[in-house]
Amino acid sequence: MLIDSHCHLDRLTESPSGMTIDDILQSAAAAGVGRMLTVAVDRDDILRVIGHARAHREVYAAVGIHPSTPEDAAVDADALLAAAADPRVIAIGETGLDYYYGPDTAEAQRERFAMHLRVAARAGLPVIVHTRDARDDTLALLERHADRGCAGVMHCFTESIDMARAALALGFMISFSGIVTFRSAGALREVVREVALDRLLVETDSPYLAPVPHRGRVNEPRHVVHVAQAIAAIKDITLEQVAQATTANFYRLFPRAATAERA
Fold first, then answer.
1. In this predicted model, what pLDDT tens digit does every residue of 140-149 receive, in sequence order?
2. What would the pLDDT profile of 227-249 be if each residue is shown by its tens digit?
3. Which residues span the domain enclosing 175?
4. Enclosing H/E stretch for 38
């Protein structure tokens, strides 16, 4: 079984694909994708991702505010903690820093990211980190506020091998998306080669970043198999080895999901 460790189901159902949650889950299951983590990016998303996770045993939820989300669509620490108490919520995020689109809001982003990290520590949940053009500040805030016992994941990783090493040293996992299949992603494939199999995850970030051979189309969880196949080729191992390892990694990183599976 494969697990899509990061998708946005509510955004996918709103996309031009016109897919329903049932459509998404059925096509994923047919491709061998048995579980997925749907991730909030704003206040309204939080209610939707929890609703999807409550309604479907294949789905887990993460609650947080994307660094590029306007303040009027954010939540405070108390609201985030309340959402995190739901047993179907297994992570805080996505959160982080994105200076590519919002360099003028860098200070506010840092404050919001630190708040998420403190909430994650209080809730005892791992954190899902988005970072773009903000390497030093991201690592500094993780050093200062992240709970090493819970750690988290650097999602849709596209940064340097040095940043990957620094995140791994902090106890974080590295998650790769369909970008790893792009012809231009040679440097990223070198990162894949170096990251140990027991420290990586696979994701789609759907409906965005569809992998080859679906690039340019709406992405969906079933396409995570192409990410796993690319990693298998890079590491010269089998797809089954990637599936087994990334599934085990998912449940190790997100213990609340493992508890739910045993219930």
1. 999 999 998 8
2. 999 999 999 999 999 999 999 99
3. 2-262
4. strand 33-39
